[in-house]
């Protein structure tokens, strides 16, 4: 049985598994072997500002561990991003809302990000996303979830 902990990767028997080593559960063994667990796209954390939590915490050791990669879901599905979401989309920062935004991957591979009335906003290429309206996100463009120093990601396509 696979379980998940808040802001943690899926685990089996309480042993954390790295997301790059996981195949989608709905794949058969034959399909998984032929796909070799390839991901088509991923949001990656990029350096912005100092990269530390000095603007949030007096003691740098209080800074939470942040994801260095957020794997996008399969086409036709969504991923919630926020401080209180489980799994892949968790960004445990006080400047990121509990349920901050939704990232959607369309059937044709297009990606949109929708701000879910977050307190500190969502930005694509530094332009504010209107709440509850999907904003296109293209490969090579950045998305910021509230904190421009720590929660800034760029969309990259690993299949290219």
UniProtKB/TrEMBL annotation:
InterPro entries per UniProt: Cell_Proc_Reg/RNA_Proc, FHA_dom, SMAD_FHA_dom_sf
Domain of life: Eukaryota
Domain FHA: 79-129
The protein's name in its UniProt record: FHA domain-containing protein
Lineage per the UniProt record: Eukaryota, Viridiplantae, Chlorophyta, Pseudoscourfieldiophyceae, Pseudoscourfieldiales
